Amino acid sequence: MDDAQDPFPAPASMQDAWTGSALYGSNATYLEALYETFLQTPEAVPVEWRRYFEALPGLASGRTEVPHAPIRAEFTYDARHPAPAAGRTIDKQLRVLQLINAYRFLGHRTAATDPLALPGQPRPEELRLDYYHLGEADLDTRFHAGSLVGVNQAPLREIVARLEATYCGPIGAEYMHIGTTDEKRWLQQRLEGAYGRPEPDGERRFYLLQRLTAAEALEQHLHSRYVGQKRFSLEGGEGLIPLLDILIERAGANGVEEIVLGMAHRGRLNVLINIMGKSPDELFGEFEGRTHGTALAGDVKYHLGFSSDRMTSGGPVHLALAFNPSHLEIVGPVVEGSVRARQDRRGDAVGRKVMPVIIHGDAAFAGQGVVMETLNMSKTRGFSTKGTVHVVVNNQIGFTTSTCMDARSSHYCTDVAKMVNAPILHVNGDDPEAIAFVTALALDYRLRFRKDVVIDLVCYRRHGHNEADAPEVTQPMMYQRIKTLPTSRAHYAERLAGLGLIDEAGARALVTDYRAQLEAGGVVVPNLIEAAAIEHPYTVNWRQYIDSEVPEEVSTAVPLEQLRELSAALQRLPEGFALHPRVAKIMDDRRKMAAGAMAIDWGYAETLAYASLVDEGRRVRLCGQDTARGTFFHRHAVLHNQLKPGVYVPLRNLHPQQADFLVIDSLLSEEAVLAFEYGYATASPNALVIWEAQFGDFANGAQVVIDQFISSGEEKWSRLSGLVLLLPHGYEGQGAEHSSARLERFLQLCANDNLQICVPTTPAQMFHLLRRQVLRPLRKPLVVMSPKSLLRHKLAISSLDDLAEGHFQEVIGECDELPGRGVETVVFCSGKIYYDLLQRRRDEDRRDIALIRVEQLYPFPETEIKRQLRHYPSAARFVWCQEEPRNQGAWPELSWTLNQTIGMSRPLMECVARPPSAAPAVGRFDLHTQQQHALLDAVFNR
């Protein structure tokens, strides 16, 4: 093309470029931005401008930066004089480049992603030609398209058509918020290179129609067969089924071997049948009440999980759909934890073998804070799963709440994902070809960049929130539109008929064939692998923990010589590693403890428990907001060099053959982090998995996890977990918020041996309790009311021999020599109050009061308590003493059990406690002290 034809001719010299009034001052801001782009990534700038910038004297002499002020001065022009024609041409070229960029930023705002075509926001003015002083007269003028993929020079009409097809069709792509140029260019290449979408062949299109048919036919079959029963239909969002099919196949082709899915109830039955391979006959049995699972209580059918294996072109892929409650998004972090455990088991550090997929609802994705917490985990060391594929089934409504007015303040329900620079791909749920394209794009992005990615499947809900609902009462306009809308399958079948790929009879035959399969009750998923036909090398055997006979005692002692060897390894530091003076003192004390010169304290007993477990091949994972150091400056699992950047973790450096020890200072989250740890524990029965609250009451922020998973998961779903909760608990006058771990709430949740609730009072008890948790053939969650002031209490100590011998004692009897028949009062207690009672008794030299510590509150140790009572046949008074108010703590739940245990022939047990209170504790230290003295007075002076 010669210069006469070129609308953007190169100047004869740089002087011509700068002195020509085309480069007038009103373009200075844009040109400076273009120049900044050139300095960082020259290839992103049109070739003509690259030549200009490369010829600058500062760059020609080898400099990578030149002052901008002279350039701005050269661009300045007198606004009273119009630019000549050549200048206006260059000005329009710049504006075309601005237009291209505007489509990348804002095209999604006007994309045709809504199958209902409901009225939306007006088209952004930045996408109008007149915004850039362009018009009809410019449409046939050829312009350079800059970095627009697939175009060098073209008429403006063609450039705009390409941009409209790419960014304003059935796909609306948000990616320009991403901070990494490489990612943006990659997405640009894929989106613009496909010109909005690829053209699949006939076979691929037929496959998409088949999967849409399966999705629709199942819902219609259930709707006619089980009239009025809740199933939370997928109708209106059937595109989810081909989406998941494509995702699984492409993931398998790229080497993924496991996918863990999480989703709420909307469409879950469809996913179970058409993706996971659950037998329709089994589902029908659940509708009809003739199928009983192994769980004690069971759960509704749209909460149940499932696992299966599907063959892909890259080999078998194991699928696991997580069990979940109705608390919508809470299953997300549970899935992430399960995936991280599976990745750790495989040594899959880059997340190529195991991948999470989480399916969300639109209102929940925007409305529930746990979504933000989970996204915030995605790049952190202790919680990253190297990218999650998020799929939002966007029904454009939240139960009856209008999403555009009341459900959120952001434009999209997916805007929260921008916090982690995740690309967001909005797609029309009635366009299966566009769905196929964005699914492949999202999966490839996740595998390449190991980051989260979001598919916003914009669809609708053909029925109400459930099938008995009347949605037109609250959304009349929306549901008038829905009633007239053909289904996704019908719409796509008509489209394929127009292309000559299928006729009406052929489309009907697909429905008939699928329904016949359903009636037969057999599995309807293609490429499903028989469970017995595949052997998973990374499968965890849970059978040994199901209905296992639990011994009353298990050996948790560690030989003295082994303890000393571990202690020596824990004291080794790298050359030149400088400790903080307070930490150095703690390490020095631990050397003395190992030598027997000092009593063992809590911090060291706990450390030795972890060391012995990893030494024996048991993985330990310890997580919480201040866990590495310990909220109370007692643990110091991670040591910090005081002279230069660097840390050292002794528990990771015992010897080369040890199991892994991971300690993580978590993000400031309770709900998502505890859910993650629960998910991790459910996939790691051989590991000790611990979540530690900064203070025990912080568990309040994760109550949904405790109620819906930890306490009831076994009873609802037969899901076992050995998760440990360390909840610092004790009344030290710190006020209502940092005293109580709400022991009463956990005891209220106890039934059918579902939990273990323990309150250890010595370092040795903590040592044996932690070891018992993984050495016993039992996997039940363990809730520990862990100490605060006891960490340094002069009486709360143990010896090295206590660790080398014995086991965890569920009840600890009297430690002082008392005359059995001289004891008139037996006091039962738990936790820190024991040491206050002991000190008072010794101070008063009282020999008529025996103190019995109940270290395990549930399962209640009835037999051992009865054994202890035999020592005191003359006792006539029985007391339960607790620090908590009378309406809290252990008493409300255990009073009946305690009285049953001591026997009805004895006097009723009395309770000594703080007065009933709405708050867990008082906030005034003087009042706290008065109450504490009153407790002791009530025990010793009646």
TrEMBL record:
Cofactor(s) this protein cannot do without: thiamine diphosphate
Domain Transketolase-like pyrimidine-binding intervals: 600-793
SUPFAM superfamilies from the UniProt entry: Thiamin diphosphate-binding fold (THDP-binding)
Catalyzed reactions per annotation: N(6)-[(R)-lipoyl]-L-lysyl-[protein] + 2-oxoglutarate + H(+) = N(6)-[(R)-S(8)-succinyldihydrolipoyl]-L-lysyl-[protein] + CO2
UniProt keyword Oxidoreductase present: yes
Keyword Oxidoreductase: yes
Record's keyword terms, sorted: Glycolysis, Oxidoreductase, Thiamine pyrophosphate
GO MF annotation terms: oxoglutarate dehydrogenase (succinyl-transferring) activity; thiamine pyrophosphate binding
EC number from the UniProt entry: 1.2.4.2
Family annotation (Pfam families): 2-oxogl_dehyd_N (PF16078), E1_dh (PF00676), OxoGdeHyase_C (PF16870), Transket_pyr (PF02779)
Domain of life: Bacteria
Catalytic EC class: oxidoreductase
GO annotations of cellular component type: cytosol; oxoglutarate dehydrogenase complex
Biological processes per GO annotation: glycolytic process; tricarboxylic acid cycle
Subunit and interaction comment: Homodimer. Part of the 2-oxoglutarate dehydrogenase (OGDH) complex composed of E1 (2-oxoglutarate dehydrogenase), E2 (dihydrolipoamide succinyltransferase) and E3 (dihydrolipoamide dehydrogenase); the complex contains multiple copies of the three enzymatic components (E1, E2 and E3).
Role summary: E1 component of the 2-oxoglutarate dehydrogenase (OGDH) complex which catalyzes the decarboxylation of 2-oxoglutarate, the first step in the conversion of 2-oxoglutarate to succinyl-CoA and CO(2).
Family membership: Belongs to the alpha-ketoglutarate dehydrogenase family.
Protein name: 2-oxoglutarate dehydrogenase E1 component
Annotated organism of origin: Acidihalobacter aeolianus
